[in-house]
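Morning run. Coffee first, then this:
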Amino acid sequence: MMKRSITINAIELATAYHSGQKRMDKIDYIIHPARVALYARTMLESISDVEIEKYFNMTRSEVEAASWLHDTIEDTSISDAEISERTSKAVLSVVRELTSDVEEIAKIGKSSYLIQKINKMSLVAFFLKLCDRYDNVSGLEFAKRKFADRYCLETEQILQGIDLPKTDNYEINNLYEDLVLMIKKELSDYRLSQTKEIKNEEFANS
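And here it is:
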């Protein structure tokens, strides 16, 4: 019998455990990990399997599985054992890295917490965290302004505080640099749209 793909197992787990959850833009939550997985898969297309395993210490399929499952420990009742058994110990380790500690956030603030956490992440977790953040900032126009403004500021603070990984492989290094540029572009577009909206409101009320 052919062994089932761990990516398929990850998709099934993410779909089951995120069932019924919604994003702030009211779409099904599973669309978020699906997009994160798409970004990761697309950005890794030009990098060989050998290089992925060398620098990420996991296979291409495991990277994709982790991208699908990155929010499950934090936002659902899934167990470590289920992730490990249905995918791999390496996937579980990365999902654990991507899970925030709410008690630590309460102590030092989310931006400070994430800066410290991201700077200590493995290469693959750092990559997936940026993919995750990119998807989140790409939808700010659909969020309430108060939340979007706070998330925008938080992201700017994080980008200022993190140190991008530097390896001896320029293609790997470019992953992080390209993602930061993509995130900054989304933040700039959001700031510009809000400036225009405020001006339009002022004009309408004048």
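The chain has a mean pLDDT of 94. Good start to the day.
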